[in-house]
Amino acid sequence: MWMTVSCTRYCLEVMTVMKCFCCDKKTTSRELLIISAQHYCHVCALGLFGKEALNSPVPQQSSRFQRILLHLRALFFLASGLWVFVLLYELLESAYNYLKTKFGKQKM
């Protein structure tokens, strides 16, 4: 059980630590700013972009509920795609059987 707890703590720490795009400094996501779809630390952001960097959004931490909703949404789309595939297979199979009986070789 000790190994599981330490592994879980390590995984949580790895997920929350991110790198600055400019200086590769490892910081938590709360200390980073998103500018032009890149993550910058405060020092690099102020040096590169000036006062405009202070208006940029901070990366949001996804909560457990949001991650569960994301997985459920992916599962729903996977199930609906599989359902469409099965529906098309059944449709093509029934059309093939209909054409085979209608235009198949008839005995004289």
What does the model show?
The protein has 108 residues and is α+β, with helices and mostly antiparallel strands. Helix content is 58%, strand content 13%. It contains 3 helices and 4 strands. A two-stranded antiparallel sheet has the order 1-2. Strands 3-4 form a two-stranded antiparallel ribbon. The N and C termini lie far apart (78 Å). The model is unreliable at 1-14 (pLDDT under 50).
Number of strands: 4
**Rough outline:** rod-shaped
Counting H and I runs of at least 4 residues, what is the number of helices? 3
- What's the oligomerization state? single chain
Low-confidence stretches: 1-14
What percent of residues adopt helix (DSSP H or I)? 55-70%
Tell me the radius of gyration: 27 Å
Q: Please report which band the strand proportion falls in: under 5%, 5-15%, 15-25%, 25-35%, 35-45% or over 45%.
A: 5-15%
Structural class: alpha+beta
Order of helices and strands: HEEEEHH
Through-space gap between termini: 78 Å
The strand order across the widest sheet is 1-2
Biggest sheet, in brief? 2 strands, antiparallel
Average pLDDT number: 77
